[in-house]
Specification:
Distance between the termini: 44 Å
Largest sheet: 5 strands, parallel
CATH class of the largest domain: Alpha Beta
CATH architecture of the largest domain: 3-Layer(aba) Sandwich
Strand content: 15-25%
Low-confidence stretches: 1-38
Helix content: 25-40%
Number of domains: 2
Radius of gyration: 20 Å
Structural class: alpha/beta
Mean pLDDT: 85
CATH topology of the largest domain: Rossmann fold
Length: 215
C-alpha cells in the first residue's frame, strides 16, 4: 500500500478516456487544469447547410472534418430547432443560384427557413460564422451572394458575426453581396473552378475561427 501511494504521488497528469470524451487533468504548480476534447467541442457547435448539386454539402464536410469527430453537418430543412437553440456556435452555409436577388438567393431550403423559422429565434449571445459556394467565373458579378444573406439574417436575430471574415485575395469575382469593406463576411468556396483549394481553405478557416475565440 505504501508503494502504491508513492506511485500515485509521482503522477503529474491523469488522462481519462471514454467513448465520447477525453479530458486531461494536470497538476502544474499545485493547480488542476482540464482540456476539453474535440467531441465536447463539437457538441457546442451547430453546422447547418443546404445544397442543390452537393457542392455545399461537400464543403460542410470539409469544415466538420477539421473541427473534429462528433460534428455532423445538418441539412437546415432537417434541423431540430430545440437542438439548434442549445448551440453557442453556429456555422451556416449555402450555394448561390438566384443571382442578383435581394432575398432568397440560394434556391434551397434556406430561402423559406430564413424568413419563416429564423425570425422566431433569439440568438443573442450566440456566435455565427458563414460560408458558401459560388462560381466566380460564370457569375462574377454575384459571387456567393447568399453568404451575405445568411450573415444579415442571423446577425439580425442577435448573433455575433465578428468571426471568420476572410481575404478576397486569390478570387477572380467582380462583385459580391458577401463582400464588405474589402473582405468576405465568411469563407468562400468555388467547387467549379478551384475545388482543389477547398480542403485547405476549410482547414485554414477552422484554425482562424479557433484563434478568434469562436470555439
Amino acid at each position: 500500500m505504501k508503494f502504491l501511494n508513492n506511485s500515485l504521488a509521482a503522477v503529474s497528469s491523469i488522462v481519462l478516456l471514454s467513448s465520447t470524451s477525453c479530458v486531461a487533468f494536470s497538476n502544474q504548480g499545485g493547480r488542476r487544469t482540464s482540456v476539453v476534447s474535440s467531441s465536447q467541442l463539437a457538441a457546442n457547435i451547430g453546422l447547418y447547410f443546404s445544397t442543390i448539386g452537393g457542392n455545399t454539402e461537400d464543403c460542410a464536410a470539409y469544415i466538420a472534418s477539421e473541427i473534429g469527430d462528433g460534428l455532423t453537418p445538418v441539412e437546415i430543412g432537417d434541423a431540430d430547432i430545440a437542438d439548434l437553440k442549445t448551440k453557442d456556435c453556429i456555422i451556416v452555409g449555402a450555394p448561390t443560384w438566384n443571382t442578383g436577388a435581394d432575398t432568397e438567393r440560394s434556391m434551397t431550403t434556406w430561402d423559406q427557413w430564413l424568413y419563416s423559422e429564423l425570425p422566431g429565434l433569439d440568438l443573442t449571445g450566440k456566435k455565427v460564422a458563414v460560408f458558401g459556394c459560388g462560381d466566380q467565373v460564370s457569375y462574377g458579378f454575384n459571387y456567393a451572394d447568399s453568404v451575405g444573406e445568411l450573415f444579415d439574417c442571423f446577425t439580425r436575430q442577435g448573433a455575433s458575426g465578428d468571426f471568420g471574415k476572410t481575404s478576397t485575395d486569390g478570387y477572380r469575382h467582380v462583385e459580391s453581396k458577401a463582400e464588405v469593406d474589402g473582405q468576405f463576411l465568411g469563407l468562400m468556396f468555388d467547387q467549379d473552378n478551384q475545388n482543389d483549394l477547398s480542403a485547405e481553405r476549410a482547414k485554414a478557416w477552422v484554425a482562424q475561427l479557433k484563434t478568434e475565440g469562436f470555439m
